[in-house]
Design a protein that fits this description.
Length: 197
């Protein structure tokens, strides 16, 4: 975005997306950064990649991120994943993802909560970041709608109803102590922009 602005390239957002995905290697972070809100990134079809499908952030929902001090290399997290998964787990994750997308679109807290369930990634990586997984299991007791491991981990994203965000943040401070950083992370409806350099 900065290079496009600085060198007056005049690229469309889709062109920037294609170039950024080629550099990054996968579309999820790039799509969210460029388009804002929540995005579902379709797989490439031949030589082209369709632009992300974008959803506005759900009304009344905010994020709180816990960033542990220790890191887990992405390749190590990927290596923890099995080559095959049980059909029941795959079906459960498809159902959860569908509920999450519908919950975001409808701003339905119950659907969002159900949609945060995972049986494919988090159980297989739990041994890599046990403190994060313990905190994840306590999300609802801490007042959150639910939580997920962010990316490959060990960071966590807590989904909160806006009136509970302060309470969840305080509960996390008491629980996390000095092993992680806590940040409020409102979901932005706006994608990247470079108004001036």
């Amino acid at each position: 975005m900065a290079a496009d602005h600085l060198f007056e390239l005049g690229l469309e957002r889709e062109q920037i997306y294609d170039r950024a995905v080629a550099l990054e290697g996968h579309p999820d972070n790039v799509g969210a950064a460029l388009y804002g809100g929540f995005v579902v990134c379709p797989s490439a079809e031949g030589d082209s990649r369709p632009p992300p499908v974008r959803l506005d952030p759900p009304e009344g929902v905010e994020g709180v991120v816990v960033i542990p001090g220790e890191e887990v290399p992405t390749d190590r997290a990927r290596a923890a994943m099995p080559a095959e998964v049980p059909v029941a787990d795959a079906v459960a994750n498809v159902a959860a993802a569908s509920q999450l997308v519908l919950g975001i679109q409808r701003s339905d807290l119950t659907l969002i909560s159900r949609g945060l369930a995972d049986r494919l990634h988090q159980p297989h990586r739990a041994h890599l970041y046990p403190r994060s997984m313990e905190l994840l299991a306590e999300a609802r007791d801490l007042g959150a709608i639910g939580a997920t491991i962010s990316g490959a981990g060990p960071a966590l994203l807590f989904w909160c109803f806006w009136q509970d965000t302060g309470k969840v943040t305080e509960a996390l401070r008491g629980r996390v102590a000095d092993w992680g950083e806590i940040r409020r992370a409102p979901f932005s409806p706006l994608g990247a922009d470079v108004p001036e350099l």
